[in-house]
């Protein structure tokens, strides 16, 4: 496959009419930063999308289901964090357990995301860090398989977080303060300025700090973040961006898992929303540090070279309580079912990406070719682990065993301050890849998108047990678009992604990775001069090479023997409508329905809503604005006769008023009618969703 990629590069470089006509001025293409960056003040996607192939494609030209949450929509709905964002993405089920979330789309777990189109995986993907959206101007969500850029993962969805840039040649910015439910107070700011007289060097600084209590007993949260970026035009043809981000998230008195769902006799418990199994001394703190550097150079033939590097580190410090047993009818539980766990962990990820983008002409038709290489290195270490189960012989552990029962209504458990053990648990995942994509214009209306990725995947763990290595893993990409008149485009695509697995065969060898194959056809449209964008697509996702038990044990290891078989099949439909209905009315609507079954024909991922819909509309008149929205999730359950959450709808409201030239006030109310519902369920646990909350913010813009 590497030879095929090299041949593709050579073929495009040797075309006699390969390059488009030269620009009179390359700086016009750069225009302070990349040409695809424009003012984002609406609900429709103006920017070119590079979340699938790195080709310069509009949303309409992208042959996959795509949702863009613009800066304006994030601001109007008060979306500031990763977990809140997930609630508002059409087709996503959040499934929250504690501080962690396990989002799914189309029946599969979302197990990675992208930062400026570079993948972030491993522990960073699980949502426990609840990443602040402070550094990002918009989020591009591609549904289904996106393996050409991501590498390993599930065929669920990829969220691409696009960073803010320093794109202003004059001083401007905004400051804000806010107050809300449960003693929630915050301050934020965003300032841009030129560094030199010409504005060829520009800087931007954003910050936020917020603290709050909660409807949950004991719980409180402090969140601080700062982001800085310096962008520089190097001559007329080059651009350099250097940025850094730091977030410190402290959560005390929180839960580890949900509340027990059943009494010992099998009847349902009836805990109130404020009750959680926790104590004030518990904590789940995370510090995150990011650095990145981007370089872009335009050649005289309009081709470009792009180099990117990013580094991210997350340090976790947790001390948690968990109860995994049954609850007696009198509200007591068995002390032996109590678990206390503390952990100090560090995660690091390095990303390097280098690619060239070459536009060219053949037969008076415009084409585009991209080829590049990517390197990802993720390391995780848990050097200090402490658990009550491991420390029953210590004085602190024995102090807990002295009590035989616990009272859920009156816990009063002291921090045992168990001694840490140096576990020295370390693992590393390395992905290397070469990729290429070509946009071929057969006619002005008909275009083919052809791409492929060759991946090298390596996983290593301390001690060597569990190491695995895959080479020459091929990920193809095929897309077709056909324009019908000025407003509509038909599309079809075949995309794929691979997922390494831990299952072993009779020879004690790891099975090949699971293959996720995504087939999609649909139609996209643009109306009102592109201000209103719509898409309708149907999809089918097929898992292949999934490890299936054959009912035998390996005599040497006593482990189950697996063989590659059929996996899950998911079928469904996606509908999106975003943009401006009129000059004063903006709308964002998305709906998804899917049905997923395993190889035996049984329902799969029943804790993921089969039908979801998200709606938000804003109307502006004079200095006033009013926004209203609704979110619908269909029934979910865990085991046929166990916990069930019926379908429900949550409403939200936004009111805004510009009371002076530079001053603005906005009120957001979420869960307007105070609906009681489960946001996470398990075999014997449930987690309630947030009740009605409000947030009032005052903003000054200059």
TrEMBL record:
The keyword NAD does not apply. Residues 60-157 form the TonB-dependent receptor plug domain. Its main location: membrane. It holds the Pfam family TonB_dep_Rec_b-barrel. Residues 260-672 form the TonB-dependent receptor-like beta-barrel domain. GO terms for biological process: siderophore transport. InterPro entries: Beta-barrel_TonB, Beta-barrel_TonB_sf, Plug_dom, Plug_dom_sf, TonB-dep_rcpt-like, TonB_rcpt_CS, TonB_sidphr_rcpt. It is a multi-pass membrane protein. It is found in: Cell outer membrane. GO terms for cellular component: cell outer membrane. It comes from the Bacteria. Keywords: Cell outer membrane, Ion transport, Iron, Iron transport, Membrane, Receptor, Signal, TonB box, Transmembrane, Transmembrane beta strand, Transport. One of its GO terms (molecular function) is signaling receptor activity. Belongs to the TonB-dependent receptor family. This is TonB-dependent siderophore receptor. The lineage of its organism: Bacteria, Pseudomonadati, Campylobacterota, Epsilonproteobacteria, Campylobacterales.
């Amino acid at each position: 496959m590497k030879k095929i990629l090299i041949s593709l590069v050579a073929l495009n470089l040797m075309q006699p009419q390969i390059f488009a006509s030269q620009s009179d001025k390359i700086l016009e293409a750069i225009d302070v930063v990349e040409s695809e960056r424009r003012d984002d003040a609406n609900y429709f996607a103006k920017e070119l999308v590079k979340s699938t192939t790195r080709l310069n494609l509009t949303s309409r030209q992208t042959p996959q289901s795509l949702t863009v949450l613009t800066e304006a929509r994030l601001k109007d709905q008060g979306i500031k964090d990763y977990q809140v964002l997930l609630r508002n993405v059409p087709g996503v089920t959040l499934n929250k357990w504690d501080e962690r979330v396990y989002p799914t789309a189309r029946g599969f777990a979302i197990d990675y995301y992208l930062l400026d189109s570079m993948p972030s995986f491993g522990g960073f993907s699980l949502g426990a860090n609840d990443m602040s959206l402070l550094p990002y101007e918009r989020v591009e969500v591609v549904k289904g398989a996106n393996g050409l850029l991501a590498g390993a993962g599930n065929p669920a969805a990829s969220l691409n977080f696009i960073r803010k840039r320093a794109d202003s040649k004059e001083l401007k910015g905004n400051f804000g303060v806010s107050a809300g439910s449960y003693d929630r107070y915050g301050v934020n700011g965003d300032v841009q300025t030129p560094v030199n007289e010409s504005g060829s060097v520009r800087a931007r600084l954003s910050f936020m700090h917020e603290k709050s209590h909660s409807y949950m007993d004991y719980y409180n949260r402090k969140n601080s973040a700062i982001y800085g970026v310096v962008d520089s035009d190097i001559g007329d043809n080059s651009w350099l961006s250097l940025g850094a981000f730091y977030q410190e998230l402290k959560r005390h008195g929180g839960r580890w898992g949900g509340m027990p769902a059943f009494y010992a006799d099998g009847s349902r418990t009836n805990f109130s929303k404020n009750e959680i199994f926790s104590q004030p001394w518990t904590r789940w703190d995370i510090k995150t540090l990011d650095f990145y550097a981007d370089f872009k150079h335009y050649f005289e033939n309009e081709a470009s070279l792009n180099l990117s590097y990013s580094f991210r580190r997350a340090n976790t410090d947790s001390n948690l309580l968990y109860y995994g047993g049954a609850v007696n009818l009198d509200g007591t539980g068995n002390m032996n079912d109590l678990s206390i766990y503390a952990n100090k962990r560090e995660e690091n990820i390095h990303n390097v990406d280098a690619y060239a983008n070459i536009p060219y002409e053949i037969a008076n038709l415009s084409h585009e070719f991209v080829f590049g290489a990517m390197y990802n290195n993720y390391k995780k270490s848990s050097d200090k682990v402490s658990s009550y189960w491991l420390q029953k012989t210590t004085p602190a552990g024995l102090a807990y065993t002295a009590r035989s029962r616990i009272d859920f209504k009156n816990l009063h458990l002291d921090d045992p301050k168990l001694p840490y053990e140096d576990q020295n648990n370390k693992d590393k995942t390395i992905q290397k890849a070469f990729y290429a994509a070509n946009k071929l214009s057969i006619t002005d209306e008909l275009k083919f998108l052809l791409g492929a990725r060759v991946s090298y995947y390596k996983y290593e763990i301390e001690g060597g047990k569990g190491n695995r290595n895959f080479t020459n893993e091929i990920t193809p990409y095929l897309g077709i678009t056909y324009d019908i008149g000025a407003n509509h485009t038909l599309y079809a695509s075949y995309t794929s992604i691979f997922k390494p697995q831990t299952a072993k065969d009779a020879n004690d060898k790891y099975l090949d990775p699971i293959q996720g194959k995504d087939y999609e056809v649909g139609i996209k449209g643009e109306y009102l001069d592109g201000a209103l964008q719509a898409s309708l697509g149907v999809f089918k996702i097929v898992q292949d090479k999934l490890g299936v038990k054959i009912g035998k044990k390996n005599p040497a290891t006593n482990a189950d023997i697996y063989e590659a078989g059929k996996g899950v099949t998911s079928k469904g439909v996606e509908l999106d409508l975003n943009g401006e209905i009129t000059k004063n009315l903006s709308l964002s609507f998305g709906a998804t329905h899917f049905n997923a079954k395993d190889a035996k024909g049984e329902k799969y991922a029943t804790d993921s809503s089969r039908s979801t819909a998200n709606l938000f509309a804003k109307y502006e008149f004079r200095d006033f604005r009013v926004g209203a929205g609704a979110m619908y999730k269909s029934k979910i359950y865990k085991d046929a006769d166990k916990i069930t959450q019926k379908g429900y709808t949550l409403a939200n409201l936004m009111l805004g008023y510009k009371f002076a030239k530079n001053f603005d006030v906005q009120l957001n109310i979420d869960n307007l009618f105070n609906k009681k519902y489960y946001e996470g369920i398990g075999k014997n646990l449930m987690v309630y969703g947030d009740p009605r909350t409000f947030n009032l913010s005052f903003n000054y813009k200059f």
